[in-house]
Design goal:
Elements: E1 11-16, H1 20-35, E2 39-46, E3 51-52, E4 55-56, H2 57-64, E5 66-67, E6 71-75, E7 80-83, H3 86-90, E8 95-98, H4 108-113, E9 121-124, E10 129-132, E11 135-138, H5 139-146, E12 152-156, H6 161-165, E13 170-175, H7 179-189, E14 194-199, H8 202-224, H9 229-250, H10 262-274, H11 276-286, H12 293-301, H13 308-322, H14 329-339, H15 346-353, H16 355-362
Parallel strand pairs: 1-2, 1-8, 2-7, 8-9, 9-12, 13-14
Antiparallel strand pairs: 3-4, 5-6, 10-11, 12-13
The chain binds nicotinamide-adenine-dinucleotide and SN-glycerol-3-phosphate (G3P).
SN-glycerol-3-phosphate binds near residues 159, 276, 306 and 307.
Length: about 375
């Protein structure tokens, strides 16, 4: 029986983005929307149109049910429909999933705002942070403002997209402000191999997801220098301390428990061993600093984007403006190596010189 929109209580879900993570999550969302009565079974996905093997990417997705550029070899459910037009992709949406590199957010919300359903909510899977004249801005808050105050949650975690797409067991964390929305979103994302926990903590969950990408650059430098697991574990430990210090100094309400969720320690570990930021940082060292991160990204990632370099720049801007850079020797030296031609060894020299301060701030 045909149901009109007026009487149809099912939530319409739209995915904004179709890179590696957008494709992996579309597999889960598509299956859950087929399975659960709460959601409309058709899921629209906004795809930034490109030509792949002589065909439009949206045509390939809609005909072959696969995104061969960003997630080759993994089929998408047939109810996921690719649309190159951001307005029609998000029309009447009750739930928007933002999953694109945040440098491409500019102007997007303006286009979407008028066409979504009344009461539409959003969730950001974007790992990054922004700095403006007022100071630090969460990406989820940028979207919230762009969408005229829409309730925004975030989903972060130890989630390398190819492993999630392959259905390997992992966990993720939703950070919400509204617990009813948090629970609804948990049901949309959770599946037997993708376990989702909910915390009423947007900033803690979101900034963990952003900062781990900076630490991952340090882990890649360690790999590039040919050093071993003890050294990498040290970078991970110090990185965790700086992440915690940064987050709790900006958001004192963030509880330690957030750092023990998938968005915290688990994402930090996985990114430092298996992520793209780590991979590009290793290549940066092996190229003797002669190639920029932009060049390496283009060479190694076939159109995928890393977020750690941009986040390092934003974090250093924030800390400089606050006069607190010296409290973060790891973040500072990672930025210096990536952008100021500092030698690799400064990674350890800076930490060693600042050792006393690091330990005294550790509590
Ligand atoms: N890939 C992962 O394993 C993973 C896991 C968790 C979270 N994330 C986060 O998810 C977010 C999205 O990353 P991703 O990995 O899905 O993307 P990606 O790096 O795989 O792909 C880049 C995307 O950018 C799009 N794009 C390129 N030029 C564009 C333009 N001018 N305008 C709009 N879009 C354009 C491409 O179409 C593609 O969809 C990031 O914040 C990332 O940190 C990624
Ligand atoms: O490949 P990266 O470095 O962008 O990391 C991917 C995910 O964020 C890991 O959770």
């Amino acid at each position: 029986m045909k149901r009109t929109r007026e009487f149809d209580q099912r939530k319409q879900v739209a995915i904004v983005g179709s890179g590696a993570w957008g494709s992996a999550i579309a597999r889960i969302i598509g299956r859950n929307c087929q399975r659960l009565d709460t959601f409309h079974s058709t899921v629209k996905q906004w795809v930034f149109e490109e030509t792949v093997n002589g065909r439009k990417l949206t045509d390939i997705i809609n005909q072959d049910h696969e995104n061969p550029k960003y997630m080759p070899g993994q089929k998408l459910p047939h109810n996921v429909v690719a649309d190159p037009d951001i307005c029609s992709a998000t029309k009447d949406a009750d739930i928007l999933i933002f999953v694109l590199p945040h440098q491409f957010l500019n102007g997007l919300c303006e286009k979407i705002k008028a066409s979504v359903a009344p009461g539409c909510i959003g969730i950001s899977l974007i790992k990054g942070v922004h700095f403006d004249e007022q100071g630090m801005v969460l990406i989820s808050d940028m979207i919230k403002e762009g969408m005229g105050g829409m309730d925004m949650s975030v989903l972060m975690g130890a989630n390398l997209a190819p492993e999630v797409a392959a259905g390997q067991f992992c966990e993720a964390t939703i950070g919400c402000r509204d617990e009813t929305n948090g629970t609804l979103l948990q049901s949309l994302f959770h599946d037997p191999n993708f376990h989702v926990a909910v915390r009423k903590d947007v900033p803690g969950v979101e900034i963990c997801g952003a900062l781990k990408n900076v630490v991952a650059l340090g882990a890649g430098f360690v790999d590039g220098m040919g050093l071993g697991d003890n050294t990498k574990a040290a970078i991970i430990r110090i990185g965790m301390m700086e992440m915690k210090r940064f987050i709790q100094s900006h958001y004192p309400e963030v509880e330690d428990a957030t750092f023990f969720e998938s968005c915290g320690v688990a994402d930090l570990i996985v990114t430092c061993y298996g992520g793209r930021n780590r991979k590009c940082a290793e290549a940066f060292v092996k190229a003797g600093g002669k190639k920029s991160f932009d060049e390496l990204e283009a060479e190694l990632l076939n159109g995928q984007k890393i977020q750690g370099t941009g986040t390092a720049v934003e974090v250093v801007k924030i800390l400089e403006a606050e006069g607190k850079l010296e409290e973060y020797p790891l973040f500072n030296s990672i930025h210096g190596i990536a952008f100021e031609g500092k030698p690799m060894e400064s990674l350890f020299l800076d930490i060693d010189n600042m050792g006393e301060m690091v330990e005294s701030l550790a509590g």
